[in-house]
Amino acid sequence: MRVSTADFYRTGLANMMSRQAESMNTQTQLSSGKRFTTAGEDPLAAATAQRLNARIAELTAQNDNITQARTSLNTEEQALNSVTDILNSLREVALAANTPTMDSATLMSQSALVERNLDDLIAVANSRDVDGNYLFSGYAEATQAFSRDALGNVSFHGNQNQRSVAIGDGQSIALADSGFAVFQNLSSGNGDFAITVDGDNTGTAIMDPGSVIDPPAWDGQSYSVSLATRTGIDAGVFAFTDNGGDDTLGYQLEVNGTVVDTLAEGDVRTLADIAANITAQNGTTGVSAEIHDGVLYLINDNPGAGPITLRESLTGANDPNDAVTGFLGGTLRADPGTPLVTELSNEADSWVARDAGNVLVSAGAYDPESDIQFAGITTSVSGEGHNGDRFNIAPSQRQ
Question: 104 and 247, same structural domain?
């Protein structure tokens, strides 16, 4: 087949034009950094790129939201740390004021300090985030969260919703908590239980809010902790023997002037017997007894009752050599025949915990700020405690 010169030139020109177009396309790709500039050049790749761009934009927005949330929550954490500092300051003021020797000028100064702390607390509750929004106002972010009127009443002006942002597929995180939840809709005490001080307490002791340390053991019931005094009656079976001549001895124990137990020769008493006999007269003496781990504790049933007086007497002796060791460890002698009187210090050295049915749960030595643990909870008492001072523990309630 013969090829004309014209066909030859036309073919060559077409090839040149094609190469030129390819070269221009390559130059366009190089200069733009894109494989194609219009969707028509590669529809499938264009659709894929569009999906990727949308996903990148979505992830970028989520990353920005994470940064925003982290900043906002850090701001809230700083605010709540300030709240903790203010509450600790108020607690210190309360401890300092819990003394009968404080004069009126000092009391006024402490009152002014409380007012300043409350003002500081309102200021923290009205904290703003980096964008100037009120942190604790919920959706009403442009509205001041709290105000305090001339009478000291505090009002919440935000709403109870939490602002949140998306941080992943189907995931979101709150930017802050509503001030209503943080400052007003609170449970009493520590959120698990609340402690109240008996109004008749005469000591300066204050009980720490405490916490639950063993959730399975915490039954959510009410308890009381009474400060007490440990006696010298520790353990065992108690009896006495006629150490002198042939006579009939007797032993008598009085609590606050009331006879609670009388023994004749040959009688014996266990620790449980002694505790039961003392408690049986508590309607008259105002004193009850508890035993825990072989130790007998005496408790004023009425806070503020004062020191407990124990009086031991030896009766029936006609020989000066007659002697007997009393329940408290002292020796009673026929000569001189005087009773042994023990006045227990009003300052408590122990504690006893009872349930709502007044049944003993636990007991132990009282050292200010040392742990008091029972029923899955822990707390402590600071300050000088008097025998009978009582602290009541009840499940937390919404306030």
Answer: no
Structural tokens at position 351: 């504690």
Residues 175 and 68 both lie in one domain: yes
Question: Has residue 229 got a pLDDT over 70?
Answer: yes
**Cα–Cα distance for residue pair 192/186, rounded to 1 Å:** 11
Token digits of residue 150: 């001339």
Q: What is the CATH number of the domain that holds 86?
A: 1.20.1330.10
Contact 290, 304 (CB under 8 A): no
Residue range 291-313: mean pLDDT, rounded: 91
Same domain, 256 and 305: yes
Contact (Cβ atoms closer than 8 angstroms) between residue 286 and residue 256: yes
* Residue 101, pLDDT score: 75
pTM here is 0.64
pLDDT classification of 228: cutoffs 50, 70, 90: very high
Is residue 180 domain-shared with residue 264, that is, in the same domain? Answer: no
As a whole number of angstroms, the distance between CA 261 and CA 275 comes to 10
287-292/295-300 β-pairing: antiparallel
pLDDT of residue 5: 66
Range of the domain at 153: 62-184
